[in-house]
Amino acid sequence: MIPVAPDETGFTAELGRRHADLFEAFYQHPFLRGMRAGTLAKEQVLHYVGQDHQYLTAYIRCYGLGLALSPDREWMRYFHDSVAFVLSEEDHAHQALCDFAGTSYADAQVDVLAPSAQAYVNHMMEAGRDSLAVLLAALLPCPWTYLWSAQRFLAEGTLGEDHPFHGWWAFYADPSMGSTLTRLRGLLDELAAQAGAAELERIEKAFVASVHHEVRFWQMAWSLEDWTPVGSDS
Ligand SMILES: Cc1ncc(C[n+]2csc(CCO)c2C)c(N)n1
């Protein structure tokens, strides 16, 4: 299953088609399989929550970079609304995971980003030093992979109210998530239509790197990645 409907046109639709294999790798990663089956260990879920809260903080900063690059007030409104959404809403998704782990959100907080989360954050922040279009391309896989996965899983019809991660899946399948994604793709389509060949190449590179980082974020949580020196036994 690919993340683009057959009748969709435009630059981001082509991006989605060209890199559908990476979206599939995201969906099939053992961590997300475990989110579907409800079989993850509590420590894996908590590792994800702690890292993801930090990731979202960085994501909000990137919206701030977008605000600084905004050519007009319409763009500013987009970033303003987006900051407000992540700042006040996205914790709800984490809450469902904390409930599963029997931990408070406050206790799930960490102050050090694991290597893979740090690499993703660095990539997005760096994209914000290029152009508005490159920044949006780096930010796009975040809502796109989550929304597409949640809608795909819900369409399978096996998500009951009693699923341990019901709140998390329902949050990302919500129509308000859909409008965030549609808006972001529309803005990037607009910018891409005016971009030259060199910028288009950087846009695609930034997008592809972020989809890779999304898959690696699962791997980080799945393997409880931290800064223990690689190859040591402890
Ligand atoms: C690693 C990681 N990637 C994507 C999301 C989902 N997400 C984060 S911000 C945002 C955009 C608007 O809310 C979305 C969909 C996440 N939580 N963590």
Automatic annotation (TrEMBL):
<dbReference type="InterPro" id="IPR016084">
    <property type="entry name" value="Haem_Oase-like_multi-hlx"/>
</dbReference>
<keyword id="KW-0378">Hydrolase</keyword>
<comment type="pathway">
    <text>Cofactor biosynthesis; thiamine diphosphate biosynthesis.</text>
</comment>
<dbReference type="InterPro" id="IPR004305">
    <property type="entry name" value="Thiaminase-2/PQQC"/>
</dbReference>
<comment type="function">
    <text>Catalyzes an amino-pyrimidine hydrolysis reaction at the C5' of the pyrimidine moiety of thiamine compounds, a reaction that is part of a thiamine salvage pathway.</text>
</comment>
<dbReference type="InterPro" id="IPR027574">
    <property type="entry name" value="Thiaminase_II"/>
</dbReference>
<protein>
    <recommendedName>
        <fullName>Aminopyrimidine aminohydrolase</fullName>
        <ecNumber>3.5.99.2</ecNumber>
    </recommendedName>
</protein>
<dbReference type="InterPro" id="IPR050967">
    <property type="entry name" value="Thiamine_Salvage_TenA"/>
</dbReference>
<feature type="domain" description="Thiaminase-2/PQQC">
    <location>
        <begin position="20"/>
        <end position="222"/>
    </location>
</feature>
<keyword id="KW-0784">Thiamine biosynthesis</keyword>
<dbReference type="GO" id="GO:0005829">
    <property type="term" value="C:cytosol"/>
</dbReference>
<dbReference type="Pfam" id="PF03070">
    <property type="entry name" value="TENA_THI-4"/>
</dbReference>
<dbReference type="GO" id="GO:0009228">
    <property type="term" value="P:thiamine biosynthetic process"/>
</dbReference>
<dbReference type="GO" id="GO:0050334">
    <property type="term" value="F:thiaminase activity"/>
</dbReference>
<comment type="similarity">
    <text>Belongs to the TenA family.</text>
</comment>
